[in-house]
Amino acid sequence: MGMFARARVDARAGETSVTDDVAWDVVIVGAGVAGASLAHGLGVEGRRVLVIERDMSTPDRIVGELLQPGGYVKLKELGLASCVEGIDAQKVYGYTMFKNGEVATMTYPLEGRTDDVAGRSFHNGRFVQKLREKAMEVEGVTIIQGTVKKLLNDRGEEWSGEDGQRVAGVSYTVGGETWDKEKNALVRDASTMQTHAVYAPLTVVCDGHFSSLRTKLSPKSTPNHPSHFVGVILKGAPNDLLPNGHHGHVVLGDPSPVLFYPISSTEVRCLVDIPASVKMPSVAKGEMAKYVLEKIVPQVPEKLRPHLVKAVEEGRFRSMPNKTMAAKPSRTPGAVLLGDAFNMRHPLTGGGMTVALNDISTFKSMLSPLPNFSDSKATAAKLDEFYRHRTRPALTINTLANALYAVFCSDGDSSMDEMRQACFEYLRLGGTYARGPIALLSGLDPNPLNLVIHFFSVALFGIGRLMVPLPTPERLLKSGNILTGACKIIFPIVKGEGFARMFFPAWVRTKMGII
């Protein structure tokens, strides 16, 4: 097989053939939200794009089910708004929060925008398949099913990152599984496995949450594991089950938040957060059902309790480890990381797809002026521009998600209990107090300075609450603890994301040589 090869696959038939008739402009590893969106975006510009996806069947995940309004705006900009149509997606207009029987309602600031701009909630797999179908409609885009094993250098050897060579392509395998009629399942069969290599001037790795290539391209990136989400589905119309059928719902429970949101016209997703400090209950031993029934059900709104009990008794639990990982941009000739392989935040606020789509939109616009990617210096310069211009929306959403999770978790610290109550009361004030934070959360306000202002406004609001009616020594001490706790939460997150990246304009970082 020649250096530049075209591989085609009919995902329904599972048959692969390779011919030597095309030189690829880009090889994309992974056809999830980031990979499929990028393939479409580059393809409509006339680029020849090969996407290699490990599994082309419909994904079955319990995260990536809520697209914030800011993410929908980017979806429209990419020409992909139709991907939320025909999948029974539900419009979401805000959040309703619950704490100790009290309620705070916040709506997205959508005034002045077209009627279609809102959040969208759906089955993740249906959305991803729509994105893949849209990408495959574009001439010049080919998606194949295969497993990428290695990054390759110009000599066709495994790229190590230590030899000064650029990434020139990838090696991937096809097959390796056969259907066992007796077992009624796929079984591994090495004799059917084929190995191929493809080459392109640019390789984009979007292989997701559990990326196998991240350590090669970003060795300093280390994911943290703050918690797990355990999900069940409540059956019924969202308006019948939820206090607000077109809102996401957050219960500020003990020890951590519980989420409810519609994913179709007949289903509501419940996600129970299990923090790392709590031993994961066993599903097989019945511990998880007991945990939810005894610990979680009494804390959720009364309207939801019978439906959650029924879901626990009749449904199946799904779990997903939650990861956070600050972006660590790295100049790698011929390759770049995108999506969850590059950057993750706690999924509490549903900001992951918004960050990914913002990144794809920025990446595409930065590289658009290039006629091709064979000029390595010109391409590297444009990639630096991408890193510098992605930061405002990405770092704002990341910091907010991780900071809110830290505030909303109950860890026995009385000062953090005060901070959590202050945050809830602050949002209950409505008006600009709620409008600012919800604009940040929705991805409609990408200003990190506004985030810091609102975060410390919450802390000062909490201190003010303690000063009424009298600032006793005990209350003064608690006030100091709130401010100290707020600093302990926000400053490490900002440091991890990069202070200069977060607050310095792109032109300043260009002069400083920071990406």
Automatic annotation (TrEMBL):
UniProt-listed Gene3D superfamilies: FAD/NAD(P)-binding domain
One of the GO biological process terms: sterol biosynthetic process
Protein name per the record: Squalene monooxygenase
A cellular-component GO term for this protein: endoplasmic reticulum
Cellular localisation: Membrane
Catalytic activity of the protein: squalene + reduced [NADPH--hemoprotein reductase] + O2 = (S)-2,3-epoxysqualene + oxidized [NADPH--hemoprotein reductase] + H2O + H(+)
Membrane topology: Multi-pass membrane protein
Enzyme Commission (EC) number: 1.14.14.17
Entry function: Catalyzes the stereospecific oxidation of squalene to (S)-2,3-epoxysqualene, and is considered to be a rate-limiting enzyme in steroid biosynthesis.
Pfam family, one: SE
Species this chain originates from: Ostreococcus tauri (Marine green alga)
Gene Ontology molecular function terms on file: flavin adenine dinucleotide binding; squalene monooxygenase activity
InterPro entries, alphabetized: FAD/NAD-bd_sf, Squalene_epoxidase, Squalene_monox
UniProtKB keywords: FAD, Flavoprotein, Membrane, Oxidoreductase
Squalene epoxidase domain sequence ranges: 200-473
Pathway connected to this protein: Terpene metabolism; lanosterol biosynthesis; lanosterol from farnesyl diphosphate: step 2/3
